[in-house]
Amino acid sequence: MVMLNIFPISNLSPIDPKTISTLFAVGGVVGTVIAVILSKKLKKRVPVIKICTLIFSVTAVFMLRAKSGFLASVLAFSMGVLMYVPLTSFVTIPQELPGMNPARLTQIMSIYWAVVYLLETIAFYFVGVLIDKFSYQTGLYFAVILSFSFFIGSFFLPETSEYKNN
């Protein structure tokens, strides 16, 4: 979300910020299509999440350092793709757990999204503080560091392919 909201106003991009936001959003649409295809073809969910979240965070570092307009465009599109490819796998995991029913799924996802949005709000606040006290670059690098938390969290997710065959 920082890439869509804060990066465009930071003047750190070598191309028009609106172009960055548009490429990121278009990449997200492409990523969603890829995610649906992958979720039907792959049995394992967690590797998709691990790979995409790691590459996303590394790509974000390069995005902040990009001096070429072409490179920034490719990276913005790639980040959009990489942000959305793991989402289908991620939201499918709770549905595939043994003993899952609609009521339990609703509770799990409601709690998850409530906690995530709370943490995101806190993170945005601290990104803003860093921008105000230091610079946009400092705040954005902090956001990139936070993006690695999704990769780290992927190591705690259950692999549901083990349950599907039973």
General description of the model:
By secondary structure, the protein is an all-alpha fold. The protein has a single domain, classed as MFS general substrate transporter like domains (Growth Hormone, Chain: A, Up-down Bundle). The protein is built from seven helices and no strands. Helix 2 runs parallel beside helix 4, helix 3 runs antiparallel to helix 4 and helix 3 packs antiparallel against helix 6. The chain is globular, with a radius of gyration of 17 Å. It starts with a helix and ends with a helix. The model has no long low-confidence stretch (mean pLDDT 90). InterPro entries: MFS_trans_sf. This is Major facilitator superfamily (MFS) profile domain-containing protein. Keywords: Membrane, Transmembrane, Transmembrane helix. It comes from Anaerococcus hydrogenalis DSM 7454.
Brief write-up:
It contains seven helices and no strands. It is mostly helical and 166 residues long.
What order do the helices and strands come in, and which of them pair?
Layout: H1 2-5, H2 17-41, H3 46-65, H4 69-96, H5 102-133, H6 136-153, H7 161-164
Helix pairs in contact: 2-4, 3-4, 3-6, 5-6
Considering the chains and any ligands shown, give keywords for the structure:
single chain, 166 residues, mainly alpha, Growth Hormone, Chain: A, 7 helices, 79% helix, globular
